[in-house]
């Protein structure tokens, strides 16, 4: 009975929405001269609802660009307009030059139920976002990012030690490295294993949330009023699941914050964003608003930094195993510049152009957030003869831009050489599109860049990454599939790695060099032992 009522409510609401939209279109058509950008033809009532791709969306949108012969595309469903930008020039013009109009974020009705309104990346453009962004900029600008170098070194060394001790557990080490970095920087919280409760609650929450966000995942995204239905009312399971996401989300904030307070009380606290804030608060006081902002920044960074770094390190290992000659070239550079007696540091960065090119190419080839985090237009705008309506969701298709053959010939080949000029110097293509655009560009990009670079240089300095062998000594082919999960793109191989499709071989000559000269501190002795 409840279900049939819900169904008829749904049909009525769909019809009302359609009628309302038709009316608005009719009234607006006189004033609206410009057409929307091209795209698949909408169906009656539901518009393009069935056209939205559920996976590999960035590739589908690239294909649509070819099909409709336009780098700007438009799709619409139940009055929600979506504009896709496949070319960098258009993203630059709209999201950077006209940033005032394009810095908002679309509101996804179910996000509030999740408790995601605290996430800076999802906040609407306005004063609240500005205050949070300011704190981020103070803490993650190029100069401030240097304060995290010690943590980045420490976590990288833990990664190396992990790979050395248990080379087949790639996935676990990579995860620990990525999440450990964020947790240390934000809370001084030492993540010892991937079974840590903070990781467990965050993962459970994210997986559950991702299932509710995808098209068709929850009716609440189509009919926002359903979010007011109490979770105990039967017939709307996504409402209950959203409550669970919220509880997990709250736990994710509570556990590390309690840890900071406890360690401050016990005198064992380590410096971090949240620790330093509470130290200051206990000493000289701070407002509730300031406390909320710090809590939200730390919580956002945990999410924003962890998954992107896991995704990028997956890409790195995958590209290295499939391109052994690139590894060798990078290792030759490391041997020449850093030598065999020490590990690379961020101070070596300017002297290791090939490692830099690998970093750029890795994020070009597989941007971790291929469609970026969507922006939203705050006013009607006209561009290249098209109307971009107020409230449209704007997807900069980073993947399409970094696979644009006119800019990156042979885009599906991993080729760090593309970042060198004819004289063999690094070229000036150093803007990493994977970090997004305009006023909402990734505010942690300098920190991320340091972490990723150090990881690449250090792993290649210590290991050669090779395909695993089966019992007969034959190489095991690896799975080349990538997998889009929610907003993110993960290399499927990260799952495969843990099933030992890959193994990490220590470079024999390094160990020989290290042990053959008693005056030389062996490189691996520098690595922390696993406690
Ligand atoms: C490889 C690593 C990373 C990638 C590829 C990445 C990518 C992105 C992208 C695409 C956006 C959205 C940009 C846009 O709207 O145009 C974003 C936003 C954001 N990122 Fe990152 N990110 C990474 C690491 C980090 C790290 C390490 C931090 C923090 C230290 C961080 C903090 C943030 C925050 C707070 C936002 C929201 C910005 C806003 O909406 O104003 N990210 N990131």
From TrEMBL:
The organism's place on the tree of life at top rank: Eukaryota
Annotated residues for binding of heme: 442
Assigned keywords, A-Z: Heme, Iron, Metal-binding, Monooxygenase, Oxidoreductase, Signal
Annotated signal sequence range: 1-26
InterPro entries named among the record's database cross-references: Cyt_P450 (IPR001128), Cyt_P450_E_grp-I (IPR002401), Cyt_P450_sf (IPR036396), Cytochrome_P450_fung (IPR050364)
A Pfam family per the record: p450
This protein's record includes keyword Kinase: no
SUPFAM superfamilies registered for this protein in UniProt: Cytochrome P450
Protein's UniProt keywords contain Iron: yes
Listed cofactors: heme
Pathway listed: Secondary metabolite biosynthesis
Any one Gene Ontology molecular-function term assigned to this protein's record: monooxygenase activity
Family affiliation: Belongs to the cytochrome P450 family.
Protein name (database record): Cytochrome P450
